[in-house]
Each structure stands twice: as C-alpha cells, then as structure tokens.
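Help! Submission page says 'invalid entity' but I think these are all valid:
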Amino acid sequence: MSAEDVVFTPVRRLGELIRERRLSPVALAETFLDRLERLGPRYNAVVTVTRARALEQARRAEAEIAAGRYRGPLHGIPYGAKDLLATSGGIPTTWGAAPFKDRVFDFDATAILKLEAAGAVLCAKLAMVELAGGMGYRQPNAAFTGPGVNPWSRDAWSGGSSSGAGSAVAAGLVPFAIGSETWGSILSPAGNCGVAGLRPTYGRVSRHGAMALCWTLDKLGPLGLTADDCGLVLEAIAGRDPADPTTVDRPFHHEPAGPAGRRFRFGVLRAVTDGCEEAVRENFERSLGVLRQIGTVEEVALPDLPYDDITRTILFAEAASAFEDLIESGAMRGLTAPEDRYTAYARDAILAKDYLKALRLRGVMAREVDRVLAPLQALVAPGRATEAAPLDGEVRSAIRGTARDVMGAVGNGAGLPAVVVPNGFGPRGLPTSLQFMGRAWEEQTVLAAACAYQSLTDWHERHPDMS
Amino acid sequence: MSESEAVRAEVETMLGLVRERYGSRLSAEELDSVRTAIEGIVQAAHVLRAVRLANADEPGQPFAAYRADP
C-alpha cells in the first residue's frame, strides 16, 4: 500500500496496517515529512521539521516490528508536538516567541519520552501562539512563525494557541499532534480546523518539560482525526510522573467502543448557546438530535458564580508570575503581536488576596460542577461560539472578556476533561464543533460519547481541499 | 462611594502603580490599553470579593509538604 494513500487515515487503522506489515514506518514518516516541508509553510503550521530524529525513530520501529517486537497502536506512527514541549538533540523549542527562537533544551519533555516509548515518530515541532497566548494577544498574527492559517480557508485562523497542531492534523501533515490547553488552546484549534481534540483532566498528563503558562491550569492533550485516536494517544501519554507532582496514579485505558447499545445521559447548560453564531446554534441543535439516538438530553443549570472571573484571575496572576523575567526585563518587546508587548503590565494590579479568593472559589466551582455532572455522562455544548476568526480580524476571547465561555471557564478552572469533534460547517465553509465535558478522570466516558456521535455522523471524514 | 466610583478609584491607583514601574517603557496609547486591561482586572476582583465564603473554604489547589526521596 502506498503511504500517500493513507494520509487522512486514522491512527487506529494506520497502526493495524503497520502491525500487519502492510505499511512501512519509514515510508510513512517520509510521506509526512514531505508534506510537512511542502505544505507546512502554507499554513504557518510548522516551526521545525525533525527529519533526522523522525527517520531514526522510524527505522528503529521498522526493525523492531520486523523482529516481532510490536509496541502497540502508536508504533511507527508519525506525530507533531506543539513547540512548547522540550526536545533534546539540538531541536529548538521556541514557545512560538521570537525571543526564544534559537533556544535549545538538553532534555525531552515527559510526554515526548512517553510517545517515544510507545514507538511514535516525532516529525515536527508545531507552531503556536507566542507563549501560548498568555500575554493578551488580540489577533491571529501573534507568533514569530506568522498567523496560523486554517486549511479550510486560507483567509481564516487555525488557532489558538495550538494553531499548528490543529492545522497540521486537518491538512494531513501528521496523523496526530500534542497540544496544550490553559483555557481553550486544544478545543479551539481542533474546533476551528474540524478535527478532534481532547483536553485531559488536570494531572492526567505530566507537564514536565512543557512551558509553564499557569501551573494550576495547564494541560497537555492530543488532537487527531477522530475521538478514538485521541483516546489511543492519551493512553500513551497519561500517568504519574515524579517530575510533575500534580500528576496522579489513576489508570487510563481506552476502549475503541463502549458496550453495544450503551445509552448516555447528556446535560446542556441553560443558555449555553447565547452569543453563538446562528450556524453554530443550528448545528448544535442538529447534534442534539443525533445524541438523542444514543441517550437523553436534559437542560441543567449551574449555580450563579462568576466562573469566567475566577478562571481569568487565576490565569492572569499565574501567567504574570511565570513570565516575570520576561515582563520585568522588557524582553516582551520582542514578541510579535504589539499588544503582547505591554498588556501583561496590567497584571501588577492583581492583589494576592484576590488571586487567593479566586483559588478558593475554584474549590466551590469544582464541587458545584461535579454535583451537576454526577448523574450525567457529559455536558454537551458548541465547541466554539463562532466559526474561526478571519486572519485579519480581532480574535474574540473569553480570556480577555470579549466572548462568553462558561464551559471553558468551568472546564479549565475545575480541571475537567473535554473532547471536541466536528459537527458541521458555517456559512464561510468553516467547521463548527461539539464538545463533551465530563467529571474529573472520566476521559473514557466523554470519549465513548464522542465516538458514539462520530459513529452516527461523517463530519470527521471530510477533509479540506488541498489543491 | 458607589461601586462604579470604587472601581474607578482602584483602577487609577493601580494604573499609577504600573506607570511608576513601567511608565518609561509605555507610550500614551499603550498606557491607555493597559488602563483598559486593568479595568477588566479590577472589575473581576470586585465580582470575586462580592462572593461570600466560609472560613473552611480552602483554595482548590492545596500545598503539599515536600520531602526528597532518599
């Protein structure tokens, strides 16, 4: 089988072909390396193509499989990593920011090591919004690699902040990617680019070797063509890591399908589509019709708490501390988006008492949302309120308070897992999306729901015109 | 003092702090943008302060004592 024929093939199927030795890991790596080099610049999706490391890993995979040492479903599968994950071997780790564009680490992030142990093949460090968007950017052009371009329309944004991860998967440049989310940075690019994205529970995946934006909010997770693929990848990167004391020792095993005929109980937050574009609302209503085939849908309500303010205050305070050197030294002047060069100065206005109040309220928020989620398998909502922003437009953001995102505020503030999958298109021909958010440590439940949804729809089988 | 007056006063105080620390680096236009950002921060703080909590309501992310493994 030609490697080029399998570009938009899910990881699970690629793994089967490799295991059966019908597909060569070296040929597969060559195919995706070529696409990354040839098409990556079109979408500003790539910072560094890691050709030498990829071919070394692919050759090793091929030899091991030929010798009967098959490691599992990621063995020989190419992938890309958001460029905030440390990589050794002289590969730069830039955090998307010009001041760090030549910076090299001498170690690999735990997620990179775990994927290597699973036999995956690192083909690229992928573009991202500078410093994962923590400095207050208002526009797509907020990375030294340029604005992330959406494969569905080169006039639209792919981000953010895991913009390269979203566009690279959507454009068939890698079968899967690792992104990070503090507030929206996995779900947004996945939704904007029409692919699946999984935000794991806080503490499920080690953050060791990942750029810290906010210690108590940052999560690493996969983007892939399907929710099922995201589950396969999560299984490889999840687990306790002594280097990240916030990780926990809770087993995670992904099953491709739940019990046949499984029924789900879904909740929809009251007024969750307020502020959504009409097409987003219509596609969400249509999605609820699909979900009613596999379960029940009921309206639920959260108590009246300032969810956005809680999560935003934590994010601003921690980001200001994480980047204290950059802010105090004035090195922010080297960032790409003009507003990223000074907006963070405002965060000196956050009092310690207010930050602690936000942390205390987070505890209340976590308990309240768990109470609402307890009888449900998932809360469902639009993944994004709008189609992707135009490249020359302003990005609406709940983080800056120019958009409303209760699901994001609650989900990230309480550290809950969520998966987003495509559920249609808007008037500009751009994907819209559906998210499933579950209780802490219930990744398998939200994945099962998303997989069941995808078994009844074909939005994930549509791909952008690459001509 | 009304709530909006209290917010406005706090914004000006905080803006003064930022101007004192970083004013030499900021143009008038940039300082205006910083003021807008501070307004958002102060408004959020007032919203948070208005929610009453009990003494036992601890931060959601407790500190853990550390001891290196032997």
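Support: the input was valid. A stray whitespace character was the problem, and the output above is from the cleaned input. Chain B touches chain A through 31 residues (CB under 8 Å).
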